[in-house]
Write a structure and sequence with these properties.
By secondary structure, the protein is of the alpha/beta class. It has 5 helices and 5 strands.
Length: about 130
């Protein structure tokens, strides 16, 4: 059986690298870690992973990205894949966007940048318990 995937979406490569390092440091080889630099790339990657019969456990998305915003991305993901746990990680999201993601994407949590590694890992662990 293949490992579940944790997908991180952010338009800043340094954030993606940091997330991947923190996740791998905590969870090791338990999960596959994928990254996307915008919403379109994330949606394409989800489709590819699904076609490969890989299960996406968690999507961690920034809010403020070029093109589609994070709340819109998470809503789009939720419409096709409601069991994926969605987390927003941002320094820019407004309350309306967060509430929209909670209502229409079943947002698990919204964390603010800069995040604490302990808070991020605790949030992901609580998200994974929902699966």
């Amino acid at each position: 059986m293949s490992k579940p995937v944790i997908l991180c979406v952010d338009d800043e490569r340094i954030m993606l690298d940091c997330l991947r390092t923190q996740l791998f440091s905590s969870f090791g080889n338990t999960y596959l870690y994928e990254v996307a630099e915008d919403a379109d790339e994330a949606l394409e990657l989800i489709e590819e992973l699904t076609l490969e019969n890989l299960s996406i456990a968690v999507v961690i998305s920034d809010w403020l990205m070029p093109g589609m915003k994070g709340d819109e991305l998470l809503i789009s993901i939720h419409q096709k894949f409601p069991k994926i746990v969605k987390i927003m990680l941002t320094g820019q999201a407004d309350e309306v966007a967060v509430n929209r993601a909670k209502k229409f994407a079943n947002l698990h949590c919204c964390l603010c940048k800069p995040w604490s590694e302990a808070e991020l890992l605790e949030t992901i662990e609580s998200a994974l318990c929902k699966l």
